[in-house]
Amino acid sequence: MGIKVLIVDDNRVNLRLLQEILEDEGFVTQCINESTKVIEAAIIFKPDIILLDIMMPVLDGFEVCKLIKQNSELYNIPVIMITAKTESTDLKRALELGAFDYIKKPVDEIEVVARIYSAYNYKTINDKLREMAIRDGLTGLYNHTFLLELFQVELDKAKRINSNIAFLMIDIDYFKSINDTYGHMMGDVVIREISALLTDTVRTGDIIGRYGGEEFSIVLTEVTNEQALDICDRIRKNVEQHVFEVNGNSIKVTVSIGVCLKKSQSTASKNDIIKIADIALYEAKKSGRNKCEMTII
User: Which parts of the chain are coiled coil (predicted)?
Assistant: First the structure.
């Protein structure tokens, strides 16, 4: 699929002109002529670039750009402002609000295409750098910081679509004794292979990260109580049945899991949910390990 561009302008003639220019170039476009519908449309369409007119009723382009940059699902999409205004103060304001670039009206076909490609190339490079920065070096899973960013994104989405969400805290039982007995190389093997087992066990769309040390976390989206417990049980059994091997040593390992399942009507925050999941994990370890404890809020 080609580069996706969301075009926002209250003037239908301008929309049609830009759409024709971009589609002739092979871009995939969607047009919006009401500024109040931009955020919802962008979340659904998932554009690579947003072309945004400044002069619009209700919400002007400045206000829309600000909302885009405040949205956890949209903030890294390059916004190119389109304006007939030539005052440097307006252009300065647009850039300060997070706009990537601007195009002056009347638009030039070659300039529009060139600036979109420039923004897309920037986004591609930035996405690659971001991917390197958000991954844990040992496991390839999301690191702690980005895991929590994604968790907030999913919390916002769950609120918008009125669905349940669950946060799992997973800890390797007696991990210190594994390192002390077999060495850190075996410890690294256990962490890497458990990360692979987690990836193979969860559903497509669920989010897995290394929370820190020997702890992992998983965000289960649009999940029921029964589904969350079933996934936890499968994780626990898959780890328990796996044989970890390094340098001629074969060992068995178990994990304990704490879960906080937030129902759609709950107003609990990200930090509240993590704290509750951590307490549930403590209870799982305190009551014997190799088990799951779930709290529903």
Answer: none
